[in-house]
Fold:
Amino acid sequence: MASNKGWQEAILIVQHT
Structure:
């Protein structure tokens, strides 16, 4: 689960839109 940083950043952006 090292690719958590990738989705975390994308999720934050998507949740902010």
